[in-house]
Amino acid sequence: MNKNIKNKFLVLVVALIFTSLFISCSDFLNDPDIEDDPNRATTVSADLLFNSVQVRQFFRYEGHLSRTTSIWMQQLGGVDRQSLALGQYIFTENEWNGEMNGIFTGGALIDIRNIRAEAKSKNWKTYEGIAKFYEAFVMGMSASLWGDLPYSEAVSSVATPKLDGQISIYNACITLLNEAIADLTTGGGYKPPNDHVYAGTNAKWIEAANTLLARYYLHLAEVDASNYAKALTAIQKGISVNANNFKTKHTTVESESNAIYQFWRQRDSYIRAGKYMVDLLKAKNDPRLNVYFQAGIGSLAGKFEGAAPGQALTDASNLSAAFRANSFQFDIMSFSEANLIWAECSYKAGDATTALAKLNAARRAEEGRWGLTANSLGVATGLTGTALIDAIMQEKYIALFLNIEAFNDWKRTNRQALTPFTGGQIPRRLLYGDSERITNPNIPNPSQQPARNANDPGNNY
After folding, report:
1. Cis-peptide into 262, omega within 30 deg
2. CB distance 431 to 450 below 8 Å
3. How far is residue 88's CA from residue 418's CA, in Å, rounded to a whole number?
4. In this structure, are residues 203 and 210 in contact, taking their beta carbons and an 8 Å threshold?
5. What mean pLDDT value characterizes the chain?
6. How many Cβ atoms are within 10 Å of 116's Cβ, its own excluded?
7. CA distance 143 to 454
8. Residue 89 phi, psi dihedral angles, 5° rounding
9. Domain residues of the chain, as ranges?
10. What's the topology of domain 46-246+329-448?
11. pLDDT, tens digit (0-9, with 9 covering 90-100), for 9-46
C-alpha cells in the first residue's frame, strides 16, 4: 500500500516537472542569459587577432613557400619524396593550398582588417600603422608569387571575389605602406603589447615599412625602370642596423618553435644543401658555408656537398644545427638586404661609388649578423660595370638564404645563372590552390594560368 502511494507521488512529481518545462520552454530559450554564450565569441580583440596574424605570417615565410623557392633557386636541394619532385618541377595545384589560404584566413587579411577597424575607431595610430604594414606585407609578397589575386573584393559580401591585377595590388600595397609610415610617424594611442618583432617601437616599424616599400618598387622595376629611383629614396630610410632586422620570434617551447625545425624534425631526409649554393660558398672560401650547412654523412661524411636539381643525394650536407634549432629566429628583412637594395639602385642610377660602398657595408652587416671575423667576407675594390652588379646580386643571393625574396631577385635580374633540372624550366610563379579554385570560379584552371606574372615580362638586365 505504501509502495503504491510512493509510486503515484513520484509519477505526479515527474509529470509536474515536465509540464513546467513545456510551459516555460519559450521563455527559457529566449532568455538573454542563454543567448549570451561566453564560449562563443562574437568579437575578438585586436590583441588576440594580432597574435594570430604574426604567428601565421611567420610560418608562411619560414615554411613551404621558403622551401619551394629555395629549392628552385638551388640554395637547397630536394632529395626525397615531394621535395625531390619539386626539384624536378613536378607539382599539382594543391601544392600550396594551405599557403594560399594563409593570404586570407586564420591570421591573415580578414583578421588584419578587423584589427585595422578597431584601431581606427579608437584612434590607435601606432596599432593602425602596424596593421597596415602587415596587410601590405601579406598581399604584396603573395602577389609576388601568385600574381593576380582576390583583394579589393576579398573581405566583403562578394561570394566569389574577382582577381585584381598584380600591378594594381602592388600599387595598393605601396599606398598602404605610405599610410602606415604616416600613422607610425604620428603615433599615439594604445600599442599592441604582444608585438613580437619590434615591441611597438615606432622608429623600427618605420624602417621596416620603408624597406618593404623599396622591395616592392624593385618588384615593379622590370616593367618601369623609374621604380629604381623610388626604391633608392625609400631604402635610405630603411633598416639601419642588424638590431632592427624584421625577424620571426620563436622559443625552445615546442608550441613556439620555428617552422624550419618542425619540418626537419618530421621529414629530415627530404631536403639537403643545394649544389649551386655549396659550390659558390666553397669557391669564395665564404665562412657562411659553416653557418648555413653541416658536413654530409655516409659516402660524403666530413665533406660539404650539395644536391643538384632532381638528384636524390640524401648523404649531401644538411642545414646547420643553428638553422634547424627550434628557437631559430629567421630574418624576413635585414640590414644586409637594405644595403644591397641601396647598392643595386645606386648602380642603376650610375653611382658606382655608392654601389660599391653599400656592397661592402652589406658584407660588414653579414659579418655582424653571423658573428664572423671582421672583413672575413672580403673588401671589394675597383669593381665597375657588369662585374659590380654581378657582385652585388651574388652577395644578395647568399645573404637571402632561404628567403622568398631571392626568387624575386632572380626573376628580375636573371642572376644567378642557374642551370635547371634536365629537360625542365625553373617555374616563375606558383599555381593557385585548387581549394580556392573550386570555391571561386574566377580562379582559372592550371592550363589557363600564365607562366609569368605581370611584373616579370622577361626584360632582364
Report:
1. no
2. no
3. 14
4. no
5. 92
6. 21
7. 10
8. 65, 35
9. 46-246+329-448
10. 1.25.40
11. 333 333 333 333 333 333 333 334 334 444 444 578 99
